[in-house]
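Here is one chain, start to finish.
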Amino acid sequence: MTGLATTVLADGWGLHHNLGTGGWIVMMLGMLIFWGALIALVVWLVRGGLASRNEPPHDVLRRRLADGSISVEEYEQRRDALESSNTTAGGDDIPRAGTTGGPTTAGPSPST
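Its structure:
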């Protein structure tokens, strides 16, 4: 009786189409693509989406100092490392807090 009821209900809802093997393969691949895309979207959003890729390294460093993720000493070490990598790569000098910007000198200014 259960088999007969299932068949009647399935036919009433139009679920007994003869899809054949190709139809089932297409349906299975469609489900895999759908769920894979949904999972990838959730992972991408959890990791920050577009926001995490547009922030410059110095801004990330300042934000981490502000929220307490790193100490002041660690901030200064990482800032110095970023600045030294910028100067060796030919990048612009990054102004330090409390300076007017521009290149910094290591010693007293030469007198002319």
